Amino acid sequence: MLSGRAPARWIGTSFKMTKTRAEAVAFARTLREALGPDGVPGVRPFVLPPATALAEVAAALGPGSPVLAGAQNAHWEDAGPWTGEISVPQAADAGARIVEIGHSERRAHFGETDATVRLKVASALRHGLIPLVCCGEEAGVHARGDSAAHVLAQVAAALDGVEDATRVLIAYEPVWAIGERGREPHPGEIADVVAALRDAHGSRVGGILYGGSVTERNAAALLGVDGVDGLFVGRAAWRIEGFLALLATAASARVTAS
Ligand code: 13P
Q1: Domain extents for the chain?
Q2: What is the pLDDT of residue 256?
Q3: Among 17, 180, 214, which residue has the most ligand 1 atoms within 8 Å of its CB, making it the best to mutate?
Q4: Whose CA is nearest to atom 5 of ligand 1?
Q5: What confidence score (pLDDT) does residue 7 get?
Q6: With helix as H, strand as E and coil as C, how does 132-148 read?
Q7: How many Cα atoms within 13 Å fall on the side-chain side of residue 182?
Q8: Distance, CA 25 to ligand 1 centroid (Å)?
Q9: Mean pLDDT of successive 10-residue stretches along the chain, which has 258 residues
Q10: For position 1, what pLDDT does the model report?
Q11: From the CB of residue 216, how many other CB atoms can be counted at a distance below 10 Å?
Q12: Which of 3, 147, 225, 257 is 20 to 30 Å apart from 94, CA to CA?
Protein backbone atom coordinates (compact mmCIF):
# COMPACT_ATOMS: atom_id res chain seq x y z
CA MET A 1 0.00 0.00 0.00
CA LEU A 2 1.15 3.50 -0.74
CA SER A 3 0.48 5.81 2.12
CA GLY A 4 2.85 8.23 3.77
CA ARG A 5 6.26 6.59 4.13
CA ALA A 6 6.69 3.58 1.90
CA PRO A 7 6.61 0.47 4.07
CA ALA A 8 8.84 -1.39 1.63
CA ARG A 9 12.01 -0.78 -0.30
CA TRP A 10 11.45 -0.09 -3.98
CA ILE A 11 13.87 -1.76 -6.34
CA GLY A 12 13.24 -1.07 -10.00
CA THR A 13 14.92 -1.11 -13.34
CA SER A 14 14.36 0.60 -16.65
CA PHE A 15 15.69 -1.38 -19.57
CA LYS A 16 15.97 1.94 -21.43
CA MET A 17 16.42 1.17 -25.17
CA THR A 18 17.73 -2.36 -24.67
CA LYS A 19 16.29 -5.85 -25.09
CA THR A 20 14.17 -7.51 -27.73
CA ARG A 21 10.71 -8.74 -26.76
CA ALA A 22 12.11 -12.25 -26.32
CA GLU A 23 14.88 -11.01 -24.03
CA ALA A 24 12.50 -8.89 -21.95
CA VAL A 25 10.01 -11.74 -21.60
CA ALA A 26 12.75 -14.19 -20.62
CA PHE A 27 13.78 -11.74 -17.87
CA ALA A 28 10.17 -11.48 -16.66
CA ARG A 29 9.63 -15.24 -16.69
CA THR A 30 12.79 -15.89 -14.70
CA LEU A 31 11.80 -13.17 -12.26
CA ARG A 32 8.37 -14.69 -11.80
CA GLU A 33 9.85 -18.14 -11.17
CA ALA A 34 12.42 -16.78 -8.74
CA LEU A 35 10.00 -14.67 -6.69
CA GLY A 36 6.85 -16.76 -6.78
CA PRO A 37 3.47 -15.18 -6.01
CA ASP A 38 4.58 -13.61 -2.72
CA GLY A 39 7.67 -11.79 -3.97
CA VAL A 40 10.44 -10.69 -1.65
CA PRO A 41 9.26 -9.65 1.83
CA GLY A 42 9.61 -5.92 2.32
CA VAL A 43 10.63 -5.22 -1.27
CA ARG A 44 8.54 -3.76 -4.09
CA PRO A 45 10.15 -4.58 -7.42
CA PHE A 46 9.28 -2.92 -10.71
CA VAL A 47 10.43 -3.38 -14.29
CA LEU A 48 10.13 -0.82 -17.08
CA PRO A 49 10.72 -2.56 -20.42
CA PRO A 50 10.72 -0.77 -23.76
CA ALA A 51 7.19 -0.04 -25.00
CA THR A 52 7.47 -2.82 -27.59
CA ALA A 53 7.72 -5.41 -24.83
CA LEU A 54 5.47 -3.91 -22.15
CA ALA A 55 2.34 -5.97 -22.79
CA GLU A 56 4.26 -9.24 -23.06
CA VAL A 57 6.32 -8.52 -19.95
CA ALA A 58 3.18 -7.66 -17.97
CA ALA A 59 1.55 -10.88 -19.18
CA ALA A 60 4.65 -12.93 -18.37
CA LEU A 61 4.73 -11.52 -14.84
CA GLY A 62 1.08 -12.46 -14.55
CA PRO A 63 -1.97 -10.87 -12.93
CA GLY A 64 -1.44 -9.90 -9.29
CA SER A 65 2.32 -10.16 -9.68
CA PRO A 66 4.40 -8.70 -6.85
CA VAL A 67 6.45 -7.07 -9.60
CA LEU A 68 4.98 -3.94 -11.15
CA ALA A 69 5.40 -3.51 -14.89
CA GLY A 70 5.58 -0.01 -16.23
CA ALA A 71 6.34 2.43 -19.02
CA GLN A 72 9.46 4.55 -19.43
CA ASN A 73 7.44 7.52 -20.63
CA ALA A 74 3.90 8.47 -21.57
CA HIS A 75 2.22 11.48 -23.13
CA TRP A 76 0.02 13.79 -21.06
CA GLU A 77 -2.98 13.64 -23.41
CA ASP A 78 -5.20 10.57 -23.37
CA ALA A 79 -5.35 10.29 -27.17
CA GLY A 80 -4.86 12.38 -30.27
CA PRO A 81 -2.57 13.34 -33.14
CA TRP A 82 0.75 12.86 -31.35
CA THR A 83 2.71 10.70 -33.77
CA GLY A 84 5.09 8.30 -32.11
CA GLU A 85 3.75 8.87 -28.62
CA ILE A 86 1.96 6.55 -26.19
CA SER A 87 -0.61 7.82 -23.68
CA VAL A 88 -1.03 6.82 -20.06
CA PRO A 89 -4.30 4.95 -20.81
CA GLN A 90 -2.52 3.09 -23.61
CA ALA A 91 0.34 2.17 -21.29
CA ALA A 92 -2.18 1.03 -18.68
CA ASP A 93 -3.98 -1.00 -21.35
CA ALA A 94 -0.64 -2.75 -22.04
CA GLY A 95 -0.29 -3.61 -18.34
CA ALA A 96 1.57 -0.64 -16.89
CA ARG A 97 0.92 0.16 -13.24
CA ILE A 98 3.74 2.66 -12.99
CA VAL A 99 5.02 5.27 -15.41
CA GLU A 100 8.44 6.90 -15.41
CA ILE A 101 8.38 10.63 -16.04
CA GLY A 102 11.14 13.15 -16.71
CA HIS A 103 14.26 11.00 -16.88
CA SER A 104 17.30 13.18 -17.59
CA GLU A 105 17.86 11.42 -20.92
CA ARG A 106 14.39 12.54 -21.97
CA ARG A 107 14.96 16.04 -20.62
CA ALA A 108 18.30 16.28 -22.46
CA HIS A 109 17.34 14.71 -25.80
CA PHE A 110 13.57 14.81 -26.20
CA GLY A 111 12.51 18.20 -24.95
CA GLU A 112 11.07 17.07 -21.64
CA THR A 113 10.61 20.08 -19.35
CA ASP A 114 9.29 20.73 -15.88
CA ALA A 115 6.04 21.78 -17.59
CA THR A 116 5.61 18.51 -19.50
CA VAL A 117 6.62 16.53 -16.42
CA ARG A 118 3.85 18.24 -14.45
CA LEU A 119 1.26 17.42 -17.14
CA LYS A 120 2.40 13.79 -17.25
CA VAL A 121 2.25 13.42 -13.47
CA ALA A 122 -1.33 14.71 -13.56
CA SER A 123 -2.22 12.23 -16.30
CA ALA A 124 -0.68 9.29 -14.46
CA LEU A 125 -2.58 10.17 -11.28
CA ARG A 126 -5.82 10.75 -13.20
CA HIS A 127 -5.58 7.22 -14.57
CA GLY A 128 -4.52 5.52 -11.34
CA LEU A 129 -0.89 4.78 -12.23
CA ILE A 130 2.10 5.45 -10.02
CA PRO A 131 4.14 8.35 -11.41
CA LEU A 132 7.87 7.78 -10.95
CA VAL A 133 9.18 11.33 -11.19
CA CYS A 134 12.86 11.63 -12.02
CA CYS A 135 14.87 14.61 -10.90
CA GLY A 136 18.55 15.35 -10.76
CA GLU A 137 21.19 17.98 -11.41
CA GLU A 138 23.95 18.25 -14.02
CA ALA A 139 27.60 18.09 -13.01
CA GLY A 140 28.01 21.87 -13.13
CA VAL A 141 25.15 22.44 -10.72
CA HIS A 142 26.60 19.80 -8.44
CA ALA A 143 30.05 21.44 -8.55
CA ARG A 144 28.51 24.81 -7.57
CA GLY A 145 26.83 23.23 -4.56
CA ASP A 146 23.37 24.04 -5.89
CA SER A 147 22.09 20.44 -6.17
CA ALA A 148 19.39 20.56 -3.52
CA ALA A 149 17.85 23.82 -4.73
CA HIS A 150 17.84 22.57 -8.33
CA VAL A 151 16.22 19.25 -7.48
CA LEU A 152 13.67 20.78 -5.13
CA ALA A 153 12.61 23.18 -7.89
CA GLN A 154 12.16 20.26 -10.33
CA VAL A 155 10.04 18.32 -7.86
CA ALA A 156 8.00 21.36 -6.84
CA ALA A 157 7.17 21.90 -10.52
CA ALA A 158 6.29 18.22 -10.99
CA LEU A 159 3.93 18.22 -8.01
CA ASP A 160 2.41 21.63 -8.70
CA GLY A 161 -1.35 21.24 -8.35
CA VAL A 162 -1.17 17.68 -6.96
CA GLU A 163 -3.36 17.45 -3.89
CA ASP A 164 -2.72 13.82 -2.98
CA ALA A 165 0.86 12.76 -3.74
CA THR A 166 0.80 9.50 -1.80
CA ARG A 167 1.08 7.50 -5.02
CA VAL A 168 3.99 9.54 -6.35
CA LEU A 169 7.51 8.14 -6.26
CA ILE A 170 10.48 10.45 -6.62
CA ALA A 171 13.70 9.15 -8.15
CA TYR A 172 16.73 11.31 -7.42
CA GLU A 173 19.11 10.62 -10.28
CA PRO A 174 22.05 13.01 -10.47
CA VAL A 175 22.92 13.39 -14.16
CA TRP A 176 26.63 13.12 -13.37
CA ALA A 177 26.08 9.66 -11.87
CA ILE A 178 24.01 8.07 -14.65
CA GLY A 179 25.16 5.62 -17.29
CA GLU A 180 28.48 4.64 -18.84
CA ARG A 181 29.89 8.15 -18.46
CA GLY A 182 28.48 8.56 -14.99
CA ARG A 183 30.53 8.61 -11.83
CA GLU A 184 29.52 6.43 -8.93
CA PRO A 185 28.60 8.68 -6.00
CA HIS A 186 29.84 8.30 -2.47
CA PRO A 187 26.77 7.88 -0.27
CA GLY A 188 27.68 11.15 1.44
CA GLU A 189 27.43 13.00 -1.89
CA ILE A 190 23.73 12.24 -2.23
CA ALA A 191 22.78 12.56 1.41
CA ASP A 192 22.10 16.32 1.38
CA VAL A 193 19.78 16.20 -1.61
CA VAL A 194 17.92 13.15 -0.30
CA ALA A 195 17.54 14.86 3.08
CA ALA A 196 16.21 17.99 1.37
CA LEU A 197 13.72 15.90 -0.62
CA ARG A 198 12.68 14.01 2.48
CA ASP A 199 12.19 17.20 4.47
CA ALA A 200 10.21 18.89 1.72
CA HIS A 201 8.15 15.96 0.40
CA GLY A 202 8.86 12.82 2.42
CA SER A 203 5.67 12.94 4.41
CA ARG A 204 3.44 13.32 1.34
CA VAL A 205 4.94 11.06 -1.36
CA GLY A 206 5.07 7.27 -1.61
CA GLY A 207 8.83 7.05 -1.56
CA ILE A 208 12.17 8.58 -2.50
CA LEU A 209 14.46 6.43 -4.64
CA TYR A 210 18.07 6.92 -5.64
CA GLY A 211 19.38 6.10 -9.14
CA GLY A 212 22.70 6.44 -11.00
CA SER A 213 25.55 3.89 -11.14
CA VAL A 214 23.94 1.61 -8.59
CA THR A 215 25.78 -1.71 -8.43
CA GLU A 216 25.52 -4.88 -6.38
CA ARG A 217 28.55 -3.60 -4.48
CA ASN A 218 27.27 -0.14 -3.54
CA ALA A 219 23.54 -0.91 -3.21
CA ALA A 220 23.51 -1.54 0.52
CA ALA A 221 25.40 1.67 1.26
CA LEU A 222 23.11 3.73 -0.97
CA LEU A 223 20.03 2.15 0.61
CA GLY A 224 21.53 3.09 3.95
CA VAL A 225 21.43 6.82 3.18
CA ASP A 226 18.85 8.37 5.45
CA GLY A 227 15.65 8.99 3.51
CA VAL A 228 16.35 6.58 0.64
CA ASP A 229 13.36 4.26 0.21
CA GLY A 230 14.66 2.35 -2.77
CA LEU A 231 16.86 2.19 -5.83
CA PHE A 232 16.17 2.82 -9.51
CA VAL A 233 18.73 0.92 -11.53
CA GLY A 234 19.90 0.73 -15.12
CA ARG A 235 22.87 -1.37 -16.19
CA ALA A 236 23.39 -3.38 -13.00
CA ALA A 237 19.86 -4.80 -13.20
CA TRP A 238 19.71 -5.68 -16.90
CA ARG A 239 21.01 -9.18 -16.21
CA ILE A 240 18.44 -11.06 -14.15
CA GLU A 241 21.17 -12.21 -11.75
CA GLY A 242 21.98 -8.58 -11.03
CA PHE A 243 18.36 -7.65 -10.41
CA LEU A 244 17.82 -10.62 -8.09
CA ALA A 245 20.97 -9.74 -6.16
CA LEU A 246 19.70 -6.18 -5.67
CA LEU A 247 16.34 -7.50 -4.43
CA ALA A 248 18.15 -9.69 -1.92
CA THR A 249 20.25 -6.75 -0.77
CA ALA A 250 17.14 -4.64 -0.27
CA ALA A 251 15.47 -7.41 1.72
CA SER A 252 18.40 -7.77 4.08
CA ALA A 253 18.98 -4.01 4.30
CA ARG A 254 15.42 -3.65 5.52
CA VAL A 255 15.91 -6.25 8.20
CA THR A 256 19.06 -4.50 9.35
CA ALA A 257 17.31 -1.15 9.42
CA SER A 258 14.35 -2.23 11.51
P1 13P B 1 22.58 3.36 -14.49
O2 13P B 1 22.19 2.54 -13.30
O3 13P B 1 22.93 2.52 -15.68
O4 13P B 1 23.60 4.40 -14.17
O5 13P B 1 21.25 4.15 -14.95
C6 13P B 1 20.45 4.74 -13.97
C7 13P B 1 19.22 5.24 -14.59
O8 13P B 1 19.21 6.15 -15.39
C9 13P B 1 17.97 4.56 -14.23
O10 13P B 1 16.90 5.18 -14.85
Answers
A1: 9-257
A2: 52
A3: 214
A4: 234
A5: 60
A6: EEEECCCHHHHHHCCHH
A7: 24
A8: 20
A9: 59 98 98 96 97 98 97 98 98 98 98 98 98 98 97 98 97 98 96 98 97 98 97 98 98 65
A10: 37
A11: 17
A12: 3
Q: Output the CA–CA distances (angstroms, integers) from residue 71 to 17, 85, 91, in the order listed.
A: 12, 12, 6
Class of domain 9-257: alpha beta
For residue 197, what pLDDT is reported? 98
173 a catalytic residue: yes
193 CB-side CA count, 13 A: 32
Residue 250 and residue 43 in contact, taking contact as beta carbons nearer than 8 Å: yes
